[in-house]
Amino acid sequence: MASFAVAIGFFRSYLWPRRCSLTQNRVREIRSVWSVAARTLGFVGPLLLLTVSASNAQGPDPNAGIQMWSTSEFGIDLATSGLNLDIPARSKAGAIPYFSHFFGTNQAYQTTAGGSADIEINTGLGYYDFFDSTSVALSGAETTLGATCSGGTGTYNVWSNFGVADLTGAIHPLPAFSWRVSTTPGCGTIPSPAVTTDGSGYTLVPGPSASYVIYDRSGKKWTAGNGDGTSLGSLLGIVTDPDNNSISGGGRERVLLGFAGASGSRQGNVVKYLLIPQQPTTLGEIEGPPTHRIREIAAMLKESGFNVAPSQNMDAWLKTHAVFVIAICGALYCAGADNYALSRSSETMVLFVNGVREGLRSLRTLGLPPPPINLRAIFDWMPRDIAIAYWRRLFGSERGKYYFTEHARVAWAEMKMLSDEVRALPGIGPSAAPSFDLLCGAIDAYAVRMSASTLNLGCAH
Q: What is the sign, positive or negative, of the torsion defined by CA atoms of 240, 245, 249, 251?
């Protein structure tokens, strides 16, 4: 099965801002939902995510969420035996009450998305199963890709099989119609308004430039912006009631970036961690120097005993740290996720130091500012043998276990996603950074083996 995740304003990523596009020649399904931002700081902020699945991938669960007319007891859908898990998050009162929650469905279901009948498993809470008051979205399938407009002056895509996804992830079908999306004047279409056919009461009102609004039966309105000429517009995270009161679930002003200068592990219901003297907790705005709110949050963290360093360019800092973390985890996975074994492997230690050097050098070609002085000192200014000796000593200590290994052993899925995003940056690839690419390959191999519950890993390079 093949699935892809594309983020528009993907603030959780180290690599924000970044826009991606997929050129699949098969049917693609979309569903916009809100996810989690600023997780390091422990609060929930909504972000717009676009999940795209190829037609030969897992098909959508037709019974996910709370279906119309369903009967549930203690979270169990009595018709499908699906288990619905609902975890409340943040909420507040107001003209339009705001609420947020994590919702997921666990059940087996049949799909024919790949052209044959398959049994799939919906495992419950997934990576994008965070919903809030702004999360109603449009679901659809792109059934024609790159068709030529009349006169040969441009191309268009056709979307169909529409439904409205509610706050539990249940999809309510709309009548059959097609929507032609194009940037070429006169080539696109604006379909007529449509109401869901299952009695849920949602109304879709298409607009120009592939924009649209969705109304519920009480008159609340969810607004989407313009499309990009290839796909429909994405919801802006604004919901408005009939009295014209509105709330926004997103916006750059509601998000800040941070990285905790601590590491540790969960042991049962207890989190044990160590503060890392060489790595202060770092905070910053999406763009620009630290603001008043950054300084206020930094002061609160300092009062709690954290060493805090506001960043002048948090996006560049996170890209740099991503290269560093990927190299560490790749080297650890080469050694079977054993920091002591890593410290004894001269070959992998050389690979690690070379990988970091190559990754940082590649980032500089993107015009990013220099990395923090501690990284420059050990990787750029010191001879390679001294850098190897320093890291060999750290990896061979108990601190190496708690600083790196404990987290790396359980964060392989996160590291796989992170390495994929870093490798997607221009200028970072096998030719420019061969050692770094090998470390990314070790992450790929470890992720495959862990997902198959196989723990024995070797690393060849």
A: positive
Torsions phi, psi of 428, nearest 5? -115, 105
Beta strands in 251-357 (DSSP E): 257-259, 262-267, 270-275, 281-284, 308-310
261 compared with 388, residue with greater pLDDT: 388
Q: What is the rounded CA–CA span in Å between residue 283 and residue 299?
A: 11
In the structure, how many helices (H) and strands (E) does the chain have?
A: 10, 24
Secondary element (H or E) of residue 31: strand 28-34
Distance CA 412, CA 416 (A): 6
Residue whose token pair is 């099989």:
161
Q: Report the Cα–Cα distance between both ends of the chain, in Å, rounded.
A: 28
- In this structure, are residues 340 and 419 in contact, taking their beta carbons and an 8 Å threshold? no
Residue 108: other Cβ atoms inside 10 A? 12
Bridge partners (DSSP) listed for residue 160 = 141
**The pair of three-digit structure tokens given for residue 444, joined into one six-digit string:** 């790929």
What H or E segment, with its residue span, contains residue 348? helix 346-364
Give the position of tokens 């805090």. 308
**Distance from CA of residue 421 to its chain's centroid?**
10
- Other Cβ atoms less than 10 A from the Cβ of 426: the count is 9
DSSP letter at 446 equals: H
Q: Three-class SS of residue 399? A: helix
CB-CB contact of 407 with 264 (8 Å): yes
Q: Is 94 left (phi over 0), alpha (psi -120 to 50) or beta?
A: left
**Triad 356, 360, 361: Cα angle to 5°:** 115
Sole residue written with tokens 């690393």: 459
Q: What angle do CA 413, 417, 421 make, to 5 degrees?
A: 165
pTM for the model stands at 0.54
107-111, 209-213, 226-230, 452-456: which has the highest mean pLDDT?
209-213
* CA atoms of 106 and 409, how far apart (whole Å): 26
Tokens representing residue 55 in the block: 């037609």
* pLDDT above 90 coverage of the chain, percent: 32
Helix 412-423 to helix 314-334 angle, to the nearest 10 degrees? 120
Relative orientation angle of helices 346-364 and 384-395, to the nearest 10 degrees = 120
What confidence tens digit (pLDDT) does each residue in 205-245 have? 999 888 999 999 989 899 888 887 778 887 777 888 888 88
3-state DSSP assignment of residue 271:
strand
How far CA 158 is from CA of 40, 229, 345, in Å, comes to 40, 11, 55
Classified as helix, coil or strand, 404 is helix
Whole-number Å distance between alpha carbons of 134 and 240: 9
Rounded CA-CA distance 393/409 in Å is 20
Q: Quote the CA–CA distance of 329 and 102 in Å, as a whole number.
A: 29
